UniProtKB/TrEMBL annotation:
Protein family according to the UniProt entry: Belongs to the sigma-70 factor family. ECF subfamily.
Protein name, UniProt field: Sigma-70 family RNA polymerase sigma factor
GO biological process: DNA-templated transcription initiation
Keywords: Sigma factor, Transcription, Transcription regulation
Length: 185
């Protein structure tokens, strides 16, 4: 009966053969553990093609880095399962990363829509003289002199109305709700 602290002979010999670069050793390890690797990868990724890719990557790692397996730490099977888990989880994270830009894009769209809604609310709730001055300046491309003439006010009054209207509209970028906004109750 083997002692608990002594790794199985097959695991030690396989690690030595892999370290020497014996291709036949990789074939034996593959034959013995490929179904384990593939099923673990498939369980994590829920995708056949990704599980195939992880299986190839795990056995490439076993071939290229056999020295990272320490028979004293546990069976070869456990080490291969741990490598599989690490590679599969990394692939899952990589697969989810493209979602981050999309999430940021959606958040940006929501922010723009929120600012537009606040600006619309502010424009419709501002006093009529300010709104009229902004309408002339923005939609009819009038400068403050033309706006003053169209409204029948002094140029100073037209500038004051435009300035106040624009100051109110600039608050649409604030994260708070517009002044006086009650929202749905």
């Amino acid at each position: 009966m083997a002692r608990k602290d002594v790794p199985p002979r097959w695991d030690r010999k396989m690690q030595q053969r892999l370290a020497r670069g014996e291709a036949a050793a990789l074939g034996e390890v593959y034959d013995r553990f490929a179904s384990l690797v593939h099923s673990l990868a498939h369980r994590v990724l829920s995708d056949e093609q990704d599980a195939d890719a992880v299986t190839r990557e795990v056995f490439a790692h076993v071939w290229e880095h056999p020295e990272t397996y320490d028979p004293q730490q546990g069976p070869l099977r456990s080490w291969i399962a741990a490598v599989t888990q690490r590679v599969a989880v990394q692939r899952l994270r990589d697969r989810e990363e493209p979602e981050q830009p999309r999430r940021e894009e959606l958040e940006s769209e929501v922010r723009r829509a929120s600012v537009a809604a606040r600006a619309d609310y502010i424009a419709h709730s501002m006093p009529a003289p300010l709104r009229a001055a902004l309408d002339l300046a923005y939609f009819q491309r009038r400068d403050y002199r033309q706006t003053a003439a169209d409204l029948g006010v002094t140029e100073d009054e037209a500038r004051r109305r435009l300035r106040l209207g624009l100051q109110l509209l600039s608050t649409a970028h604030d994260t708070g709700t517009p002044p006086g906004y009650r929202g749905a109750v």
